[in-house]
Amino acid sequence: MLYWFILSFAFIGTSLGSNFAVGEKFQIVLSGIPNLSKPLFPSDAMVWDVDLEDTSAETIGAMKDLGKTVICYFSAGTYENWRPDSKKFVANDMGTTLREWPNERWLRLTSTNVRNIMKTRIDNAAKKGCDAIDPDNTDAYQNSNGLNMKETDSVAYMQFLASYAKSQGLAIGLKNSLSIIPSLTSVMSFAVNEECAKFGECEAYNNFIKAGKPVYHIEYIAKPPQITAAEKALSCNSKGMEGFSTVMKNMTLSGWVTYCDGSSATTDTTPGGVIPGKPPQHTTLTSTTTKPTSDPTSTLETATDPTTFEITTSIPTTSKTTPKPTSKTSTSTSKKPTTTAANGGGGCISKHWDQCGGKDWKGCTQCASGFQCKGVSPPYYYQCL
Ligand SMILES: *[C@@H]1O[C@H](CO)[C@@H](O)[C@H](O)[C@H]1NC(C)=O
Ligand SMILES: *[C@@H]1O[C@H](CO)[C@@H](O)[C@H](O)[C@H]1NC(C)=O
């Protein structure tokens, strides 16, 4: 009996492998499927995150033949109306529709039916040869989900997914959900994060990295393939990012990618994967008054030392308006604003979560009533918080 336990433990240990190591080069392509009939670029990216449903076993096999670690993405916390198994969800499983993703609804994480559907998806991932799963949208608690899902429901759901994935020889990552990292570090093999630099919260992963678990980190670029110096500085040099595997991507998570070393590549893709959300809605009021006459960056650079960041534990209850192609909603759990950036005037208003200042920033510098323009990565990025 004991022998059997040791053997099976050894087997699971081996099958999970040591392929998840801190700092490896990463690529994520969720709208579009890598076309392995062509050379796979960037060729030195070792860890790939691709759509579980639409990526074939042949494609995954070809990637593994190239020595890649393959993570298979699926939405575990939302109903997606275009997936082939969508008819299996029942009305009682589904909550509110996601704000910028009209084809998706929050799921009841405690539902046996939902969990059984996810088991089948995990079986499919194992059958296709994925090394790991990237279950997304498991942070209903940060959104008005219509089902009263709480943080504890997300923790329990991730533990359930992790235990089932491991039983099938698959590793698992935690997507965003920063406030539940401490509860889940021991069962996760890696994390996938969207925009922690933009929201000034990358330090939440410090213990995760220290535990030898990689953080695959995505920041979205406004107008790819152009990338501004400010976007690059924010994405690559923000506090708490040591050891991260960072990519800068289009919001659609298409084949285009750029890295902090300045290199860029476009993975050739065939159609499939995640349907992009609605474009971001900028309701910023336009101003008819004059633009600020002083250079806003000169005032912003006088911001105090970022080490004076104050960590608060307030959890936003509503979705951020910033679009998030895969998680769609707020990832934020701990805000670390620094100082209030001086308002440059100009009269136009940035709303909650929008940028309001920073190097090369030419947009509005005043925040909607009730919010302050704070440096989340001064002098490059200020946001209405
Ligand atoms: C980025 O996404 C937009 C759609 O939102 C698309 O029109 C554009 O071609 C994409 N750019 C790159 C470089 O992938
Ligand atoms: C994949 O690439 C090959 C080689 O260029 C091409 O012939 C094929 O049409 C591509 N597949 C799709 C579905 O675009």
Description:
This protein is of the alpha/beta class and 385 residues long. It has a domain at 11-273: Alpha-Beta Barrel (TIM Barrel). The protein is built from 8 helices and 20 strands. The protein has helices at 2-16, 57-65, 112-128, 151-167, 181-184, 206-210, 229-237, 296-300, and strands at residues 26-29, 31-34, 47-51, 69-75, 78-80, 94-98, 101-107, 132-136, 171-175, 190-194, 215-220, 245-249, 256-258, 264-266, 269-273, 349-350, 355-357, 366-367, 373-377, 381-384. The strands form 5 sheets. The chain has a 10-stranded mixed β-sheet. A 3-stranded antiparallel β-sheet has the order 5-7-6, with no helix packed on it. Strands 17-20-19 form a 3-stranded antiparallel β-sheet. Helix 3 (112-128) packs parallel to helix 4. The longest helix has 17 residues, at 112-128. Mean pLDDT is 81; it is low at 1-18, 280-325 and 327-345. It binds 2-acetamido-2-deoxy-beta-D-glucopyranose (2 copies). One 2-acetamido-2-deoxy-beta-D-glucopyranose binds next to loops. Residues 268-344 are annotated as: Disordered. Its EC number is 3.2.1.22. It catalyses: Hydrolysis of terminal, non-reducing alpha-D-galactose residues in alpha-D-galactosides, including galactose oligosaccharides, galactomannans and galactolipids. Keywords: Hydrolase, Signal. This is alpha-galactosidase.
